[in-house]
Design goal:
CATH class of the largest domain: Alpha Beta
CATH architecture of the largest domain: 3-Layer(aba) Sandwich
Strand order of the largest sheet: 10-9-14-7-8-13-11-12
CATH superfamily of the largest domain: P-loop containing nucleotide triphosphate hydrolases
Structural class: alpha+beta
Number of helices: 16
CATH topology of the largest domain: Rossmann fold
Length: 617
């Protein structure tokens, strides 16, 4: 069967998208003026940040030379100064004595917060290119994604990228690949996604090393949904790997075995990289099915599409667990239902994201949303604003706690009077860093309550393994790690378990009233300092009133920090032109009584701008 399905996996910024560009260019999938950098990064946010956020499938057509032609090329290459020169590729593509292969590529993100995208891509393919930067070597996500691929018995093709850079150390990092993953040195391909070196060799390796998918067309349809999105006209468009059988004709019925719902085939095809409709979509292929379904919840990633509810369901994916929680509220309360609809449609495109309704006394109706990390939370907020036009207000990020054996996502829901035990989530942290930054990195982790587990040396690179509380990692840990290591350190983490913690709930009171949106949970030893920072920041951002406003941080009934916003004062004595002091005092006492009365009946309104300012900090 002339089909190969593969992914590209690597650490962030190791050149996945650039290599994907060259593969598209060399195979003629995208030509001429349509070719641009990061062509598979279709989101505006991906281009703006220069990172891949979403997995992206695309079908390549490659003419693979026969044995006779390969021998001819081999002898030509031996006489050439650059055996990987792109000029040699055209002879293969135009050769008549060749076979055409369909190569289904799924490009993947590299950042730890988008690892669920990678796991879904790996479940839909038989092999993967593991890409390593020849100037940086193996990093945290290289190891994490590589081991995940091996667990799924995928064939790995090791590629050392950016070999044309002056500071590339191919010998050192070739040895590192051999030592870490057990590759043969002859298996490692030297390449450059920028200049095109090694691209032809990679294409040949894909065909020669990655096994063809099973072609079981005669069986009933089984298609694994690995991604989906909403289209106003076509309904939910499911991105699928056809495992068995074939997709029926247009308008034929399909069923979703997990959600027990029904749809129909409005359109079927593959990604080129834009949608391209075809008549047949069969076992072994990767493509899409437009289902016509307008209710988002009925189509879920990991579900199986078939033609009958009697069919056995595919294993699907391990359910992802959100680790960071943020409250999202519409700035204009009248946009609540627009936000609810936007979240429903967005979840189709990002199954790692979760949400549930929430009510706040300060902010009104909104949603408590779960994310895999802080970058994930930030990206989702920007995408919701950019793609759906929703103006959002986000509360401070928090983790979930195990209180009396029950999971609590929102710090405001914590009842101190009923609390007997409280446990916080701990993670296993793997960091790769050059040796010269070990001291600074270790000091940083210890500040964050980290516990040392192990240290492994890979030449000049060191892998540090720690255990630490997730709550200390989600604040500014990643930024500080990059700062103390001059940008060279990388990290990966996994949830371990919940462990007891001496934590307290800190309430913020404005004018004597609790503001639930600003409530947070903190370790007792750090709670006072955090409370002081919060009320100090509030003092800077809240507008002054005609009466004094007390800002307090409190644990239960104990105030641990206080600031006061001084009032405006109107000069009520401006009209006096004579007389003794008692006339002036009489007017000032009257003003004082009026302010006290105003303070009793008045309620401090916290403007949205103030919330935005304090939550950003």
């Amino acid at each position: 069967m002339n089909i190969r399905n593969f992914s590209i996996i690597a650490h962030v910024d190791h050149g996945k998208s650039t290599l994907a560009d060259r593969l598209l260019e060399v195979t003629g999938t995208v030509v001429g003026s349509k070719m641009q950098d990061q062509i598979l990064d279709s989101l505006a946010l991906e281009r703006e940040r220069g990172i891949t956020i979403k997995l992206a499938p695309v079908r390549l057509h490659y003419k693979y030379p026969s044995n006779k032609l390969q021998e001819t090329n081999k002898s030509q290459n031996q006489n050439s100064n650059n055996q990987n020169d792109l000029s040699l590729v055209s002879s293969n593509l135009e050769a008549s004595d060749s076979e055409e292969y369909i190569l289904n590529l799924i490009d993947t993100p590299g950042h730890v917060d988008f690892s669920y995208e990678v796991s879904r891509a790996l479940a839909a393919v038989e092999g993967a290119i593991i890409l390593v930067d020849a100037t940086q070597g193996i990093q945290a996500q290289t190891l994490s994604h590589g081991l995940a691929a091996l667990e799924q018995n995928l064939t790995l093709i090791p590629v050392l990228n950016k070999v044309d850079l002056p500071n590339a150390d191919t010998e050192k990092y070739t040895k590192q690949l051999v030592d870490t993953f057990g590759f043969l040195e002859s298996e490692i391909i030297l390449a450059s996604g920028k200049s095109g070196i090694g691209v032809e060799e990679i294409l040949k390796a894909i065909i020669e090393r990655i096994p063809a998918p099973k072609q079981e067309i005669e069986k009933p349809l089984k298609a694994l949904i690995f991604d989906s999105y909403f289209d106003d006209y076509k309904g939910v468009v499911a991105q699928v790997r056809i495992v068995e059988g074939k997709v029926g004709p247009l308008q034929s019925k399909i069923v979703f075995l997990g959600t027990k719902s029904e749809g129909q085939v409005l359109e079927k095809g593959y990604f080129a990289p834009q949608l391209k409709e075809v008549e047949n979509l069969e076992a072994g292929e990767i493509g899409y099915i437009a289902t016509g379904i307008k209710v988002s919840d009925t189509v879920r990633v990991g579900d199986t599409i078939s033609t009958s509810f009697e069919t056995a369901q595919l294993p699907g994916y391990k359910e992802v667990k959100p680790m960071v929680y943020v409250g999202l509220y519409p700035i204009d309360s009248s946009e609540y239902f627009e936000l609810k609809e936007a979240l429903s449609k967005f979840k189709l495109n990002d199954p790692a994201f979760s949400y549930e309704m929430e009510q706040s006394a300060a902010l009104g109706s909104g949603f408590r949303c779960g994310f895999l990390g802080l970058l994930h939370a930030e990206v989702v907020q920007e995408r919701l604003s950019g793609e759906f036009g929703v103006d959002l207000l986000a509360t401070a990020p928090s983790v979930e706690y195990l209180v009396n054996g029950e999971l609590i996502h929102n710090p405001a829901d914590l009842d101190l009077s009923q609390m007997k035990t409280i446990d916080e989530p701990w993670i296993k942290l793997q960091m790769f860093s050059p040796q010269e930054y070990i001291g600074a990195v270790m000091e940083l982790v210890q500040e964050k309550r980290g516990k040392f587990v192990n240290m492994i040396h890979y030449g000049t690179q060191v892998e540090l393994i720690y255990e630490m509380p997730l709550a200390d990692m989600i604040t500014d840990f990643y930024d500080k790690l990059k700062s103390v290591s001059s940008g060279f350190a990388s990290l990966d983490w996994d949830f371990i378990d919940f462990r007891p913690v001496e934590a307290v709930k800190v309430d913020i009171l404005v004018g004597g009233e609790k503001v639930d949106a600003l409530t947070f949970v903190a370790v007792r030893s750090k709670s006072e300092a955090m409370g002081r920072r919060m009320v100090s920041k509030l003092k800077d951002v809240l507008p002054r009133q005609n009466f004094a406003i007390a800002l307090q941080a409190a644990i239960g009934g104990t105030v641990i920090a206080r600031e006061t916003i001084s009032p405006f004062r109107k000069d009520v004595t401006v009209g006096l032109y004579g007389g003794d002091r008692t006339r002036k005092d009489k007017l000032l006492d009257k003003q004082k009584k009026g302010k006290a009365k105003m303070k009793m009946v008045g309620r401090v309104e916290i403007p949205q701008e103030a919330f935005l300012s304090i939550l950003k900090s």
